[in-house]
Amino acid sequence: MLITKKDFGRTKKGENASLYTLTNKAGMKAVVSDFGAVLVSLFVPDKNGDLKDVVWGYDKVSGYENNGVYLGSTIGRNSNRIGKSKYNLNGKEYTLDKNDGQNNLHGGFDGYNARLWSANTDEINNSVKFMLDSPDMDQGFPGNAKISVTYTLTDDNAIKISYEASADKDTIFNMTNHSYFNLDGESSDSVLEHQVLINADAFTEADAESIPTGKIIDVTDTPMDFRNYRVIGKDIDSDYEPLKFGAGYDHNWVLNKTEGAVAKMRSLNSGITMEVYTDLPGMQLYTGNFLAGEEGKNGKKYARRSAACFETQYFPDAVNHENFQSPIFSAGDKYKTETIYKFTVES
Ligand code: GLA
Fold this sequence. Notes:
Number of strands: 29
Largest sheet: 9 strands, antiparallel
Number of domains: 1
Bound molecules: alpha-D-galactopyranose
Radius of gyration: 19 Å
């Protein structure tokens, strides 16, 4: 399919950013940018066949330069938190930016989501590949790393995000996509009526700063049990300590091993269901508890809890927990992972 490229404005540093639009045979459209390798828009058909843009984002590149809430962001080298902004690797202690209290969040102040990546389009596969060179000790992570993120739009209405990276020293790779989804699109101000399903028997317990304690908690009989569809708003404000600590859902689920979708979200209004597929062990469901009226596309203000993120990942702070699968990759090893968001409609 034809991939179109257009100007997305100039960054503060004077770089020219571009927007790439992918279209499939069903009419679905994905718009991505080489600035931050961000996902800007995702136009999905609803039950009436009308296209709805189901992700929050900005009209201009300047929005993405000041994107404190990580709309549509590619996150790296490490997504989620590292406790006390410290970790030990091969007997050496490394320190990271403290950009979330005492802790490190989503790589630090100089995130991959606010850098210009280079781009290659591939019209045969209907994909755009973004590439970034991350130097040794970038953000506090060792090794010169070559990183790529490829967005592919398939004819069965899935956006596939493929990550590849390797470095010349042992390092951490734990990337994710931080898109905020609302399946009713721009007309909606709340995600609380959406229903979510997560194929997970447990979640990782976290403290008041959202740093894992190392304990894995069974979801049975808790508001964290999403093994059947649960309305997001049903228990979000209940008197349950993890939800108080997270100011709502902002937790990592321990995904059950499955060939199928690890999570789903649906809206009965638009009839759209989103399925999430990944090969990673964890997923943070974050219900936009810290959104506070940021102004986005078409002047829309993004209200608290107006959208939800499904951030597939190694568990938060995995580098500091021996019982969590390690996000450390040896020099020369390939980090290769894929997450798919697939859209269907029920009429
Ligand atoms: C992640 C975190 C949240 C919040 C957002 C950004 O999803 O888990 O606590 O920091 O990023 O606003």
